[in-house]
Amino acid sequence: MAAPRGPGVPKVLIAEEAIRRRVGELGRQISEEYEQAENVHLVGVLRGSFIFLADLSRALTIPGSVDFLAVASYETAVAPGGPVRLITDLRTDVAGKHVLVVEDIVDTGETLDYLMRLLALRGPASLKCCALLSKPACRKTDVRIDYLGFEIPDVWVVGYGLDDRERYRLLPYIGIRSDKRAD
Ligand code: IMP
Ligand code: MG
Asked: Which residue has its alpha carbon closest to ligand 1 atom 15?
């Protein structure tokens, strides 16, 4: 798909080809490290991770399964920066499974920290996480990211599943939102 151009279109931060290459590398690394596991159970965090998870899952060369959960986003949270809320839980029991949480971006780290603690209580055989993007400058927790695509500066990014109040999710690249957020 050709990247859209013109005024107001987010400036490219990470191009499609660079994402494709990095996702391929992550897929190879994860496949090697989970080779002994019978199955890797991917847990996608809706909605931002859906494109990343779709591409990452197809870059794996090991057997896997997929489930999703959803958490409150900044936009819908009653108190932004407040406690993370689970909106939709998994459909499957993760006990005894090799769980890999797939997140779009780790900003303060509160969402991932909450999810890792929640899932750890359910007795998985192993529990790791893979995030496409991380903004280390914004971190408020010491959550560990086992597999990371790219570190980025403190900017609001959109595209490849990430949104700005539901806009730009379907852009094929990671862009920087062109206008300043009103909130
Ligand atoms: P955290 O809990 O502060 O780490 O925030 C994580 C969530 O905030 C991510 O899963 C995203 O949904 C959202 N988020 C954080 N930064 C961005 C961004 O730059 N663009 C789009 N969504 C973001
Ligand atoms: Mg997210």
From this structure: 107
